[in-house]
Amino acid sequence: MFLITLFFIVAFFAFIGALFLIFHPKTLPSAIGMAVAMVSIGFLYLLLHFPFLTFVQIILYAGAVMVMVGYLIMSQGFEEYGKEVSLSQTISSYIIAILFLFLCSKAVSKSFLSRFEKTYDDFGSIREIGISLIKNWGVPFEILSVILVVAMVSSVILAKRSLK
Known about the structure:
By secondary structure, this protein is mainly α. The protein folds into two domains: 1-111, Four Helix Bundle (Hemerythrin (Met), subunit A) (Up-down Bundle), CATH 1.20.120.1200; 121-164. Helices cover 79% and strands 0% of the residues. The protein has five helices and no strands. It has helices at 2-23, 27-47, 51-76, 87-109, 126-163. The longest helix is centred in the C-terminal third of the chain and has 38 residues, at 126-163.
């Protein structure tokens, strides 16, 4: 019962962080909302007994990606305020989001999660994922890393060109 309660608390923080990301008019607090959502999702992975995904989520996304987002926001001087939104749009968005959270929590609480079979102890462990990554996915993983580096360098070059 404690784990289910903890799951819903962490899921609520992820949901609130995502709402903050979407609805806050300033960019830096919006990025902080994204970081809260990413860390909360990492803790959800921890509750689901996926230590590798937990560390990747927290270190890679909440750490590296959020540092890059914060750096880009501060260095490029992005616009501080977003588009004006009316009060009725804001209230209806929050009502819809809360209704969605309620419906999702009801669906999860009535789901058949307890009917899943137990997996073996090493399932999702860092060692098992590492072996699978090296044996089966080594070349595609390296190709993906090269593509991501090229995309990052290209975006910096395009940003520099547009500043001139």
